[in-house]
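Progress note, sequence design subtask.
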């Protein structure tokens, strides 16, 4: 997945309905940025509620009202939130292009492609029902010596495969951006929180392919 003008190592294509309106986020060299949230429906009739960051120079924020459908091309970016007592990694879809959709349009795209490097040992586990899961953190290079750190989750055969990958391995993944609620105990209080991650559908190891001259690629559609 590559869009003209965008780096091929981090591309998000997503369309959905705005469910939380624009609020001011920050300013960089006089350019204001705003955040809002969109709902991206899954085939299972569930929906992912995802954060979006957009520049005031791309679109009039007054057009981004709750209920409006938008079609976005951008990148999944991370930053550190130092407002809380503990440093937290925050993810957002950073808009490079945005289009207001017509009311009758039914486009509901959610695709992402990342090309980066594993920066923590993969965590492999099984659910109580025996389903295999692997969590990895992928560092994706950005301009000006910056990197985005993207949590990814894989299932089944992909999970087993990723569990044995080493820190520093170059990996390319395809999937969708998803939200997940979970509970965290803070003292005697249980807080409900939201995590954002990439649900992986396909994996490729570019470095190994070059060394061995093979296509080291698997998808979650293959039998476990």
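Output:
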């Amino acid at each position: 997945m590559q869009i003209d003008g965008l780096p091929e190592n981090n591309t998000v294509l997503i369309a959905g309905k705005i469910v939380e309106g624009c609020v001011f986020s920050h300013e960089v060299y006089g350019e204001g940025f705003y955040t809002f949230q969109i709902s991206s429906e899954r085939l299972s009739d569930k929906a992912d509620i995802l954060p979006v960051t957009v520049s005031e120079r791309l679109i009039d924020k007054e057009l981004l009202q709750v209920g409006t459908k938008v079609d976005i091309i951008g990148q999944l970016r991370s930053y550190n939130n130092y407002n809380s007592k503990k440093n937290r990694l925050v993810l957002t879809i950073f808009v490079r292009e945005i289009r207001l959709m017509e009311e009758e349009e039914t486009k509901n795209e959610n695709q992402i492609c990342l090309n980066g490097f594993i920066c923590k040992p993969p965590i492999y586990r099984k659910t109580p029902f025996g389903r295999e899961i692997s969590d990895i953190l992928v560092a994706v290079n950005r301009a000006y010596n910056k990197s985005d750190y993207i949590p990814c989750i894989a299932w089944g055969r992909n999970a087993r495969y990723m569990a044995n990958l080493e820190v520093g391995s170059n990996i390319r993944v395809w999937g969708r951006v998803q939200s997940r609620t979970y509970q965290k105990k803070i003292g005697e209080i249980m807080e409900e929180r939201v995590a954002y991650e990439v649900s992986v559908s396909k994996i490729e190891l570019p470095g190994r392919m070059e060394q061995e001259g093979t296509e080291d690629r698997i998808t979650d559609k293959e039998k476990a």
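The first strand starts at residue 10 and ends at 28. Work on this subtask will continue into the next period as scheduled.
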